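Hi R.,

Here's the chain you asked about this morning:
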Amino acid sequence: MHLCRVALPALLCFAPAFLHADATIRYAGGMTNLPSAAGDLGTVIYMKGNKGVTITGDSVTIVDFVKHEVTMIDTARKKYAIIPVADYSSQMEKMMPAAGMDPLKTMKTTCDSQKTGAVETIQGVKTEEREIDCSVTMPLPERTVPEVAAALKGMTMKLVVKQWTALPAERLRLPALWQLSGFELWQKYFMNPFGAPGSAAMGGMAPLAEALGKDDSLTLRSSMEMSMDLPGATAAAAPMMNMTNEVTELSTAPLDDSLFAIPSDASAAPFGEVMNGLTQSRIEASRKPAAGIQTAQLPANIKAYVPALTPLTQKHPELPEEARARDIYGSVELLITVGPRGTVEQTEVLSGPEELRKAATESLTKWTFRPVLRGGSPVTAYTTASVNFFNPSGKGAANFALTPDMATAAQRLTELEAAMPRTPQQIFEDLEQDAGGRGTKERLNLLGPLALAALKADVNDKADYYAKEMLTAAEADHKAWNYGDAIHDGHSILGVVALRNNDITTARQQLLEAGKTPGSPVLDSFGPNMILASELLKKGERDVVLDYLELCRAFWKSGPDRLDSWKATISRNETPVFGGNLR
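And the predicted structure, written out as tokens:
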């Protein structure tokens, strides 16, 4: 009775045989107010005999309580891995920096947890509420614009978590609760990387993990609301994100044994490879626009939404006297209607200080753009623009005002993107149209996204052409702020094109040239784009990728943990989780 030896509650060790029934619990989850979708958040848990299984999207986790084994299955890629339960926490800790979770180490969190006294019946189960209030401070990336760094100094994130858990008497009354409460405890003590064995992995977020683990009873409903404490804001910030999870089914109906078996068409793979696939699936889902307003709700004259068009002509406004007198600075974000001739026909303020909106709107009416094309003809389209107001004396940066409507602005743009989606080919064509007729310096800012878009649209000849143009333009101006980006991205894209032409030798050379970049504000903070490295790993080219990662260490000062994790995974002949570094 291994569970008893670690002092789990006696109910797990001495449960009557008649309570060992099959059990099912199904959760429905969702997120709101995010600038991108989070994918399917629904989860179902099954228990039968000596096994339990948790299913979320493409991820299936089977635990065997007798063998003390965990089986991870990626149903989309038809891969699975089996590891001892004793190794689960350590394996998950190794994956965290690779998945981009190492910033957790630098966060600082304080939490207050208490029962509110509220009681509610959920799916026939009496539950009580616990509320957890947390304050999280986060460091800014290196090379943050000084005015922005000064403005955001001391910025904190607020988390309010509410848990509704079954009352103790309910666990004794309902066989399904008995079973599933035991399953949660088993996971907490043996599997959970955020629990006691893996609390170090949570870094500064450990207090939240500890607060969430205070109640050993089964959670039937939970919610988490996230907001930012914005310096200079005149009103409380609207929640940036609200996540909910609630039980929609709780039963002891008989379950088929096939639910607890590895699919016959799945093949064994290293644990890291399986986790890499599951992590990439979640990242890809988060990048897809959320379902929002329908096309029918849009003005009839709007035929496209192209984010962040580059103006041909623009004039930045002077700081309004009222704002100057009150020492108010900030950024105004607007949605613009660009007509077939490239002129601004209409503007809609999305966010920004009230004192700056009129000046920003008036200035935009004088901007011009290259027209957006659909079917080869110019059309009326939406795009966005930000008008920034900084103190010309360089003082008073702490009054750079942030406004609560920034989150709702992001949601509005996400809805527009969902209503007017673009194919990879259309994205490339829009960028190519926008880049036309530009001067060398201005064009350099657009060539990176343009070459990458051509690559993603499988227009390899143009990806090659624009990558070479980018490298040539960069060599003409070593002092350009994005010189390092151009060197890294240009060589990376040329390497991928070479691989698509089965030229592995050139691809290897291009990867090493990409790693010799001097860095940039973007690369220094977020690290390299691993698009070429990941493709070379698929060809078995481990040594050159390891050499490339060492070159990246010279500029990516905030990424040594992630680089070390990737190298260790590659050395085990596994594929790392590159996560957000696959751009």
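The longest helix spans residues 483-500.

Let me know if you need anything else.
M.
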